[in-house]
Amino acid sequence: MSQQVTVTEHILLHQKMIPGATGQFTRLFNELVLSAKIIARAVNKAGLVDVLGFTGDINVQGEEVKKLDEYANRILIHRLSRSGVLCAMASEENADIIEVPENFPRGDYIIIFDPLDGSSNIDVNVNIGTIFSIFKRRSNSDAALLSSDVLQKGSEQVAAGYILYGSSTMLIFSTGDGVHGFTLDPSVGEFILSHPNIRIPEQGKIYSVNEGYERYWDRDTKKALSYFKSPKNALRKPYSGRYIGSLVADFHRNLLYGGIFMYPADLRDPKKPWGKLRLTCECNPMAFIVEKAGGLAIDGLKRILDIEPEHLHQRAPFFCGSAKDVQVVQEIFEAEARRK
Ligand code: P6P
């Protein structure tokens, strides 16, 4: 057998390098990996058995819940509750923090996840994904959990990543020391290290944004898009537009090839001028990954990982990807801010 490194082996190796590591993290990650395998099996069969279509429910985001969304959410809550190392969970599908049932052992970790992001693409077989963000509680383990334990800045994450369900199932994550990619070998049911130490190119050739909403954007975003489409940009030719409408798929392509993903503020509703992506279960984990791979993630002006969350389902404008491309956006926003 070639030098095949499994994800459990990789975590254990890294565990050694984390001072005071107690193996709790490995327990948590093993349950996450098992959840990924179970969800991957359902996603890959989605066209064959009746897990397509809508459940008829509406989630906290006001979106119609697809059966696979609900299934993935149930699997993650069930498996992670049994890790014995969590004090709380939060899901994009649930309005409130999910407490670990009393009869299960608890620990000091908190995990926030989007169980199946991009689910509107399920029926047309476009890549979808699970996104996760892991923190350690800050309050005393014996005390009652505080909302500030869950609503931590993204820079406090101890790990983050995503599982991409597509032509192959991939697990990409960072525990702070580099970004590593694992591909599921279905013949043995193991995630094998396939992309060690992923680095995002300093400058890309791709921009990813839903141009259908351009009329609702602020002037800075419009200016940024015209830069990437202009032959006078740093590349001396227009960037290619690539947007599939599934964050994990768009992000993953840009992570490997380089480029910038944008989900800007949307001025349709002056009361909600912040765009669609959720800070805690989409922007923070992706920002953690991209920074550990050498890229940047901002809301236009501010580093995503520095934003103090005020509530669980808070949204944020999101510009994320190759450092030089994100810096162009930041310079445009800063110039406008100086003019105001
Ligand atoms: P739009 C999926 O619902 C999602 O949250 C992300 O996966 C994706 O990037 C975005 O929405 C797509 O949104 O408004 O372009 O369809």
Automatic annotation (TrEMBL):
Family per similarity comment: Belongs to the FBPase class 1 family.
Record GO biological process: fructose 1,6-bisphosphate metabolic process; fructose 6-phosphate metabolic process; fructose metabolic process; gluconeogenesis; sucrose biosynthetic process
Highest rank taxon of the organism: Bacteria
Protein residues bound to Mg(2+) 2: 114, 117, 282
Cellular component GO terms, alphabetical: cytosol
Chief site of localization: cytoplasm
Binding positions for substrate per the UniProt entry: 117-120, 210, 243, 276
Assembly, per entry: Homotetramer.
Subcellular location field: Cytoplasm
Enzyme Commission no: 3.1.3.11
Gene source species: Pseudodesulfovibrio piezophilus (strain DSM 21447 / JCM 15486 / C1TLV30)
Designated name of the protein: Fructose-1,6-bisphosphatase class 1
Cofactor: Mg(2+)
Occurrences of domain Fructose-1-6-bisphosphatase class 1 C-terminal (ranges): 200-332
